[in-house]
Design brief:
Strands 5-6-1-7-8 form a five-stranded mixed sheet. Strands 9-12-10-11 form a four-stranded antiparallel sheet. The radius of gyration is 25 Å and the shape is globular. The C terminus is likely disordered. It is built from 13 helices and twelve strands. By secondary structure, it is α+β, with helices and mostly antiparallel strands. Helix 11 packs antiparallel against helix 12. The longest helix is centred in the middle third of the chain and has 21 residues. A hairpin with a 4-residue loop joins strand 10 and strand 11.
């Protein structure tokens, strides 16, 4: 691939979506996304501005940034919810950690949006569009909210593509598509073209982005200074900026999967846990890290989520050890209800080069090993590590599906790494 391909990933009405999701998880029967609602101010004081709005609220002409009192005049039955910035920060972290697990080359530009460089992961997908669809679907199915993904060979065009029709959609805006997709739009749709610039351009007879793209640069600079030249460049798709990744510090490595059919029995769940544990362990080994803690998550068909974690007796990147811990946690957590999603996460990460504190069991007392096999003798552990690394090598060379455990052959769901 000659040029970089950029994704711009943007949460659809982030504050409102995250608030709606939290209320639903707390047992509310009302989805704010489906009714006229806003985040901002409160009903009692009628103060503040609209921070986010639902699509039904937008249909009443309510706009982000307008006073709440104005929004209530437009729609008296409007539901108003105050913001929760601490929760938004947590949701943002969850999103960035999930995305960095897909591709580490991410530049976060606000709490609810980031750029991703598609080029490093291109070989895994049939096309950028297919990759973007899988990413947005994974966000929706794993985290419960939706994103738009814009695709382009220029960052600024990817940003504008993600603002096309919403929600939960993928759009392209490559340089070759500018005349068809960008130029017919009003100049107000151009990135960084605010209301003051729109008014100045209107007085110059420049109404569409196409008008701006063909305008004389000296005239634009005379009226809008250097900003006029920037707008002209963006209208023509001129943007030489590259991704400046700010690595998301992973406090752990995790993977989860939404099941195609609810798991009804322990036998349904265990192959999924095994596949998840192998995925997480493989990522640990690839990054040269060991985990000292494992957690298992269950999301029921009712969308209620539970999770539990346990300290490991010895930091490890062993697929078998993570699987055994995940099973133990599953048995402690599961209440017998149908399962929609399963997740396994490893945390308390340390470099694999860090000295290992030997335990009593390393001296090989076979009758001392407790249930679930969480303790291994040193020879057993060494053999397992050699086996895991040999399997990693085969998967790296021939593809991740070249070797699959027998217990996974008939599994209805195996998560993607």
């Amino acid at each position: 691939m000659g040029e970089h391909i950029f994704f711009h990933i943007d949460v659809n009405s982030a504050f409102l979506s995250w608030t709606a999701l939290t209320l639903l998880q707390e047992g509310s029967g009302m989805d704010l996304r489906l009714i006229p609602s806003i985040v901002g101010g409160d009903m009692a004081s009628r103060h503040g501005v609209v921070l986010a709005k639902s699509l039904p609220a937008k249909a009443y002409g309510i706009t982000t940034g307008e006073p709440v009192v104005n929004a209530l005049r437009k729609c008296p039955m409007l539901v108003t919810v105050p913001p929760d910035h601490a929760m938004y920060h947590r949701r943002s972290q969850e999103l960035m950690l999930l995305l960095s697990g897909i591709c580490p080359d991410i530049e976060q530009v606000s709490i609810d949006e980031c750029y991703m460089d598609y080029t490093p992961i291109a070989k895994k997908y049939s096309s950028p569009q297919e990759a973007a669809r899988q990413i947005k679907d994974k966000v929706r199915d794993t985290l419960g909210f939706t994103v738009n993904v814009g695709i382009s060979d220029r960052k600024v065009l990817a940003k504008m593509a993600s603002d096309f029709r919403k929600p939960d959609l993928v759009h392209t805006l490559f340089v070759r598509e500018i005349p068809e997709k960008l130029w017919p739009l009003p100049v107000s749709s151009l990135f960084l073209c605010g209301q003051s610039s729109v008014e100045t351009l209107r007085k110059l007879g420049i109404l569409t982005i196409g008008d701006l793209a063909h305008a004389r640069r000296d005239i634009l600079e005379a009226h809008l200074k250097s900003h006029g030249l920037t707008l002209w460049q963006y209208a023509n798709g001129i943007d030489d900026s590259d991704l400046t990744p700010k690595p998301v510090k992973a406090k752990g490595v995790g993977n989860s999967t939404t099941l195609p059919q609810d798991a009804l029995t322990r036998e349904d769940a265990l192959p999924v846990l095994l596949s998840l544990a192998e995925s997480v362990a493989g990522r640990l080994r690839a990054s040269g890290e060991l985990a000292g803690m494992v957690s298992t998550e269950i999301k029921y068909a009712s969308f209620h989520s539970v999770s539990h974690q346990m300290q490991l007796p010895l930091s490890t990147a062993s697929s078998q050890a993570l699987y055994q811990a995940a099973c133990k946690l599953f048995d402690e957590l599961w209440n017998g209800q149908p399962i929609r999603l399963l997740g396994v996460r490893a945390s308390k990460l340390v470099p694999e080069t860090e000295p290992v504190q030997l335990s009593l069991f390393d001296y090989g007392a076979p009758d001392a090993a407790p249930a679930h096999g969480l303790f291994q003798t040193a020879p057993d552990r060494d053999r397992q590590q050699r086996l895991d690394k040999a399997l990693d090598g085969l998967r790296s060379k021939y593809g991740k599906d070249i070797i699959k455990r027998g217990s996974l052959m008939d599994s209805p769901s195996t998560p993607s790494s």
